Amino acid sequence: MAHPTKIVCIGAGSYSFGITTLVSLLRSETLNGSELVLVDWNEAHLEIMLNLVSWLNEVWGSSMRISAQTDHRDALAGAQFVINAIEVGPREGLWESDYNITLKYGLRQPYAENSGPGGFAHAARNILPVLEIAHDMERLCPDALFINFTNPMQRICAAVHRHSKIKVIGLCHQLGAGYAMVGKALADDLDISIPGNFTSTHASRKYSIGMKSASLQALEKVKITAAGVNHFTWMLALRDRQTGKDLYPLFRKRWKAMPEAFEPLSRRVFEAFDLFPIPGDEHLCEYLPWVSDPLSKPWEKYDLELYEWDQRSRERDDQWENLAKVIQNQVDPETFIPDFSEGAIEIIENILNDSDLVWEAVNVPNRGYVPNLPEGAIVELPGLLHASGVTGIPVGEMPEGIAELLRREITVSHLTVDSVVRGDRGLALQALLLDPVIRDMDVAKQVLDDYLVTYREHLPSFWA
Q1: Total Cβ atoms within 10 A of residue 193
Q2: Which of 179, 185, 290 is CA-nearest to residue 235?
Q3: How far apart, in Å, do the first and last CA atoms of the chain sit?
Q4: Residue 208: pLDDT over 90
């Protein structure tokens, strides 16, 4: 049954999440005849996405009312779902800058995206624009659900939850890395074909195609139950998706027999804490206090790769140019149908249909779902989708050593969010001093001061 509704996609020009999400919305029978509003400040990208969506809407007979706006305030009135994928840019350029600034003070970050000093800067730039959207939603569509893709996921969702009245859920596909690693370990047992180029979970194109193949195959065979915070979740259970058989003991055995060069940091952490970390080495490394020592250089020991900033920036530009040509030539529309979901369509459809579907990774406020993590903190775990929204599925207490690592990240997240909202440099310094990457009080102050000056235009609350 169709449920005509109004959906607003802010940051519709996001190449990472935009096309997959928008195409999924258009393909939905439940949303046939709905209203879809695309919002993006980049008029060129917005026009390309509007042309794509309008063409596919006609080809597939989706009967949607499609429009586009450059200002979210012109789009929000009456919305039931608001999908957010904004990013203060240039994405790769600012990320690389976050990394390079700390080098001036003798601090080498392991990745600099979602935790560490780079995670602070990344979150700080995006928090106020996201909260502006949330506060406008309070006026224009107070009952709408805010579906977030913007990183750092845990910190952005915490900002919305702590400083607005808007209901928020965050979605991330990083659980797929866990499925890929399980698939690689159990390939012979589960008859999974592992591509030869899947030798790392790093985001590089040279690994990602093989990793995606392994992940999709494993997803059909096994079910992972994972919990923690975004990009820092842990495998609590592993079962055969058909029989329910516990596969964790077999996975432990097979993982130990794999080459030690594959995800070596995850291997060491698994050995030490006895639960398998889901995100893969490059995301995992950001949350740990053992990967940034300038003397032992653990990034070399664990072969941790940095993001390919220049290459990915060029790829992004090329993708937009190619997409414009594809739309102009109107090639086979079926090529746009994704082979996986980012989750927004499942959230929307199953809320509208009151389906009680379990989605395996949602970021929601903790309501006793993980008793030894702070109440109200944004946690990632399986969730139940139904007419009243998204409810986390209780998973019990995390092992205490892991819980302490998670609590530390949650505390840093809350200090980061509150410091930006209040323009409080004292809280910002505390956020950095508690961060696992920071090892010196003077360095923390130098990094903070440099970030605040360098990104002054993006951090107005600290200069009010």
Answers
A1: 9
A2: 179
A3: 51
A4: no
What b/e sequence results for 293-328 when a residue is b if at least 16 CB atoms lie within 10 Å of its CB, and e otherwise?
Answer: eeeeebbeebebbbbbbeebbeebeeebeebbebbe
Task: Give pLDDT, residue 82.
Answer: 98
Let me know if 44 is exposed, middle or buried by CB neighbors in 10 A (0-12, 13-18, 19+). Answer: exposed
pTM across the whole model: 0.96
Which domains does the chain possess? 6-173+328-392 (3.90.1820.10), 175-301 (no CATH), 400-463 (no CATH)
272-281 per-position pLDDT tens digit: 999 999 999 9
Tokens read off for 40: 């993006």
210/220 Cα distance (integer angstroms):
16
Q: How does pLDDT run across 140-191, given as a tens digit for each residue?
A: 999 999 999 999 999 999 999 999 999 999 999 999 999 999 999 999 999 9
